[in-house]
Automatic annotation (TrEMBL):
SUPFAM superfamilies for the chain: Purine and uridine phosphorylases (SSF53167)
Recorded metabolic or biological pathway in which this protein acts: Purine metabolism; purine nucleoside salvage
Coiled-coil intervals, chain numbering: none
Recorded catalytic activity of this chain's protein: 2'-deoxyguanosine + phosphate = 2-deoxy-alpha-D-ribose 1-phosphate + guanine; 2'-deoxyinosine + phosphate = 2-deoxy-alpha-D-ribose 1-phosphate + hypoxanthine; guanosine + phosphate = alpha-D-ribose 1-phosphate + guanine; inosine + phosphate = alpha-D-ribose 1-phosphate + hypoxanthine
Name the UniProt record assigns to this protein: Purine nucleoside phosphorylase
Gene3D superfamilies in alphabetical order: Nucleoside phosphorylase domain
Gene behind this protein: pnp4b
A GO term, aspect molecular function: purine-nucleoside phosphorylase activity
Pfam families reported in the protein's UniProt record: PNP_UDP_1
Length: 293
């Protein structure tokens, strides 16, 4: 990631190619599904067999993880007959990375032949009906940093990846959302399953009460500091996307509320639900190419 592609993008097509070639030369896996593991969810990879792990720092051009709960490993493996790749840890604007770096792995997955991306994350509930521990299937998102010009597709468009003006009205596959709902109900998770709108903020601070109230007025059900850039770039290059968000805390909408959110608490709740999420993700991977198109 050292050659300048354009003033607003720090990765050139050669950078993407170099990393893709390196990975293709170091693994015999040809993944069809990529899983981006959110905070504390690295063990989503535990359901895979024939695992092969690379540390981000050993992969040319790859950013490294700097946040607790993000191991910084790329794990290849198989689930049933499906070859897949897991990102144990993803990247955030607040770490100081450009959105080009944040989304770098998504284009690598595309070039490796991935067709479907499952994104997971931790988020705070804005919707007062939600509860801590709920799993929210992401129906849609609000790209708040994008409104302020922090957008991963800013700058000259590279047609080799996708069109200048991608449509985002169907960013999250309806088929995959339906399948996820079905799997959750088969696994007995219906009682804590939601579907809603995720809003990305840049972080790293958690929201003020006035900000949280604004997000509620905007129609957000939950808020987090990731995912939207990866999903935007995935959709731009024609990948199918499913997003699952785990509600780790209730965002304060009221000045009288005493509870204060912190990252340790976020990780603790993720740990509590990681096993069930792992079963959902494993099942999704084994069924997503059969039941959907
Ligand atoms: O979105 P992920 O990385 O899962 O994690 C969420 O949790 C962290 C804050 O506790 C932030 O990184 C936020 O985005």
């Amino acid at each position: 990631m050292h050659t300048k592609g354009s003033p607003s993008c720090c990765c050139s097509f050669e950078d993407y190619n170099l990393t893709t070639e390196w990975l293709l030369n170091h693994t015999s896996q040809r993944p069809k599904v990529a899983v981006i593991c959110g905070s504390g969810l690295g063990l989503l990879a535990d359901g895979a067999a024939n695992k092969q792990t690379f540390r981000y720092q050993d992969i040319p051009n790859f950013p490294v993880s700097t946040v607790a709960g993000h191991e910084g490993c790329l794990v290849f493996g198989t689930i049933e007959d499906t070859s897949c790749v897991f990102m144990q840890g993803h990247f955030h604007l607040y770490e100081g990375y450009s959105l080009c770096q944040v989304t770098f792995p998504v284009r690598i997955f595309k070039l490796m032949g991935v067709e479907t991306v499952l994104v997971t994350n931790a988020s705070g509930a804005i919707c007062p009906d939600y509860k801590v521990g709920d799993i929210m299937i992401i129906k849609d998102h609000i790209n708040l940093p994008g409104f302020a010009g922090q957008h991963p597709l800013f700058g000259p468009n590279d047609e080799r990846f996708g069109t200048r003006f991608p449509c985002m009205s169907d960013a999250y596959s309806k088929d995959l959302r339906r399948l996820a709902g079905q799997i959750c109900s088969e696994l007995g998770c219906s009682g804590f399953l939601r579907e809603g709108v995720y809003c990305m903020v840049s972080g790293p601070n958690f929201e003020t009460i006035a900000e949280a109230r604004m997000l509620q007025v905007l129609g957000c059900d939950s808020v987090g500091m990731s995912t939207v850039p990866e999903v935007t770039v995935a959709k731009h290059c024609g990948l199918r996307v499913l997003g699952l968000s785990l509600i780790t805390n209730m965002v304060s909408l009221d000045y009288s509320r005493e509870e204060k959110v912190n990252h340790d608490e976020v990780l603790q709740i993720m740990k509590m639900r990681a096993e069930v999420l792992q079963r959902v993700v494993t099942e999704l991977i084994s069924r997503c190419s059969i039941n959907t198109h």
